[in-house]
Amino acid sequence: MEACETFHKQTYRNRCLIDSPQGPLALTVPVVHEQTDIRHLRLSDHGHWRRQHWQALTSSYMNSPFFEFYEDDFRPFFADPWELLYDFNDAIVRKCCELIGIDVQMQPTTTYEKEPTNDDLRDLISPKHSWQDDAHFHPQPYYQVFAPQHGFLPNLSVADLLFNMGPESLIVLQQSLC
């Protein structure tokens, strides 16, 4: 996991999209902007974001099939204080992988490589690029609570997948890989 890059605005490093009755809703975690690597970027308590994000998740997904099964796994991310964005992201990614059943071996980078020698996936998932540009991933439609109102919404937070599909989340992800 990239730990040595400088924080870039308008990325998914501090935001995600969830489904809501009004359509896609962006949840943004405020950070204290400093010239530092992402590993040391501090979270801000501005705007009571933890409470607002938890209320958004609860109101959007309380009627989904699996919210009640996973809410105790997600609640600590919005109830407990987190000092660093990197630690918050690392913990939530590991928890989601665990809940989906993905055994992941992630290690933080120790230096920033401007031109990495292996596959550079740092910006593969970006709000600046359409998911349709990825030749290796085509999101398979799955049940979503608000699909009757506004159709299937691809590329939402993995929380949407978990709350709606539960143990079948891994199958949906596997079917989405080309």
Overview of the structural elements:
Strands 1-2 form a two-stranded antiparallel sheet. It has one domain (15-176). It has helices spanning 49-61, 67-79, 85-100, 147-150, 158-165, 169-176, and strands at 15-18, 25-28. The longest helix is centred in the middle third of the chain and has 16 residues, at 85-100. A hairpin with a 6-residue loop joins strand 1 and strand 2. The protein has 178 residues and is mainly alpha-helical. The two termini are 23 Å apart. The mean pLDDT is 88. It is globular, with a radius of gyration of 16 Å. The protein contains six helices and two strands, in the order ββαααααα. The relative contact order is 0.20.
How many extended strands? 2
Strand content: under 5%
DSSP helical segment count: 6
What profile does the largest beta sheet have? 2 strands, antiparallel
3D shape = globular
Which strand order does the major sheet show? Answer: 1-2
Task: Please give a handful of descriptors for the protein shown.
two-stranded antiparallel ribbon; mainly alpha; single chain; 178 residues; 35% helix
Task: Summarize the structure in short.
This protein has helices at 49-61, 67-79, 85-100, 147-150, 158-165, 169-176; strands spanning 15-18, 25-28. With 178 residues, it is mainly alpha-helical. α2 (67-79) runs antiparallel to α3 (85-100).
Give the SSE layout.
Blueprint: E1 15-18, E2 25-28, H1 49-61, H2 67-79, H3 85-100, H4 147-150, H5 158-165, H6 169-176
Antiparallel strand pairs: 1-2
